[in-house]
Amino acid sequence: MAISDLANPTRFLAFADRILRFVWATALLGLGIGLYLAFFVAPPDYQQGETVRIMFVHVPSAWLAMFGYALMAVAALGTLVWRHPLADVAAKSIAPVGAAFTFLALVTGSLWGKPMWGTYWVWDARLTSMLVLFLMYLGLIALWRAVDDSGRTARVAAVLILVGAINLPIIKFSVDWWNTLHQPASVFRMDGPTIDASMLWPLFVMAIATTLLFLALVLMMMKNEILRRRMRTLQLTAAGATG
Amino acid sequence: MAILGDHGGFILAAYLAAVVVLAGLVVWIVLDGRMLRRRLADLESRGVRRRSARGGET
């Protein structure tokens, strides 16, 4: 099957059905292995002690919060430039999943911050820009739910998504550009990770497993969205036949 | 909790939050999918069809 065949919603549904079980199985297996490594193999941190174990759920959540928005930006280009029929379906489906991971990044970060910083929240650049990302997700979800005309909403949402994408580099570099309580990057750095391998590998396993979970959830959301649009078409057809 | 040190409650709360949020999302998606399939089946049982379904699936 060529990639372009997936532009057809019926073929996409068949493709999603075929790969979903595999994605779910590998995600759950990966999460099992990742949690074992995070709790029983990774050592406590020399400064943070056992509290560092929050990193294995917080960091993948934060990465996926940004990854989700970046995917939405690509989908927005798909809507505006290539007018791909599934681009708006993808963007709309990613938003709730991305919002959930952003919420988790904020909550787990708060729960990590209290014992380490002495506070659940501080208005520093990293935390504030993540909160802005969460609010942008919520705003887009509200827009899609408020307007019934999916064609016009798709274009408005796509423009808003692309404007909001400016927040992604702000989140990433906030810890370098401003003086923040949040620590600087310790994995994706020009000079390599500063985390010991005994913690880095469990983190990567958790990140890959959580990414697979993210993809499984988005595929399920996309299936639902395609069915929702079919239902709307049928309802309009039924209304036209009786009206 | 003692095995997780003095801040075990924070660690457990973080993982519990992840389980609750993600399980809630899965349940919502599954229920939404079931509701949509039921409504689609209901419409199709009343003879309402998409054009593509009438002229062969594409």
Break the fold down into its secondary structure elements and pairings.
The complex is a heterodimer of chains A (about 240) and B (about 60).
Chain A: H1 9-41, H2 55-82, H3 87-117, H4 125-146, H5 150-164, H6 167-177, H7 197-242
Chain B: H1 8-45, H2 51-54
Q: How would you sum up the major sheet of chain B?
A: none
How far the N terminus sits from the C terminus of chain A, by CA atoms, comes to 41 Å
Structural class of chain B, by secondary structure, is mainly alpha
Mean pLDDT of chain A: 92
Q: Characterize the largest beta sheet of chain A: strand count, sense, and whether it forms a barrel.
A: none
By DSSP (H or I, 4+ residues per run), the number of helices of chain B equals 2
Share of β-strand residues of chain B: under 5%
Low-confidence stretches of chain B: none
- How many E strands of chain A? 0
* Backbone shape of chain A: globular
Q: Multimeric state of these chains?
A: heterodimer
Measure the end-to-end span of chain B: 56 Å
Describe this structure in words.
The complex is a heterodimer of chains A (243) and B (58). Chain A is an all-alpha fold. Chain A is 77% helix and 0% strand. Chain A contains 7 helices and no strands. Chain A has helices at 9-41, 55-82, 87-117, 125-146, 150-164, 167-177, 197-242. Chain A is globular and about 70 Å long. The mean pLDDT of chain A is 92. With 58 residues, chain B is an all-alpha fold. Chain B has a domain at 21-46. Chain B is built from 2 helices and no strands. The relative contact order of chain B is 0.07. The interface between A and B is large, with 38 and 33 residues.
Short précis:
The complex is a heterodimer of chains A (243) and B (58). With 243 residues, chain A is mainly alpha-helical. In chain A, 77% of the residues lie in helices and 0% in strands.
Key terms:
heterodimer; A: 243 residues; mainly alpha; 7 helices; 77% helix; B: mainly alpha; 2 helices
